[in-house]
Amino acid sequence: MNRQQDERGQVLSSLVAVLAVVAIVGGLLVLFGTRGNDSVADSGKPADKTTPKVTPSGSPSVKPSAPASSAPASSAPPAPTSAPPSSAPVSSAPPSVPASEKPSVPPSSPASIPVSARPAVEVYNNTARKGLAEDVAIRARQSGWIVTGRDNWHGKIVASTVYFPAGMQAEAEQLAKDIGVARTKDALPNMKKDRLSVILTTDYAG
Question: Please, are residues 160 and 172 in contact by the beta-carbon 8 Å criterion?
Answer without folding.
Answer: no
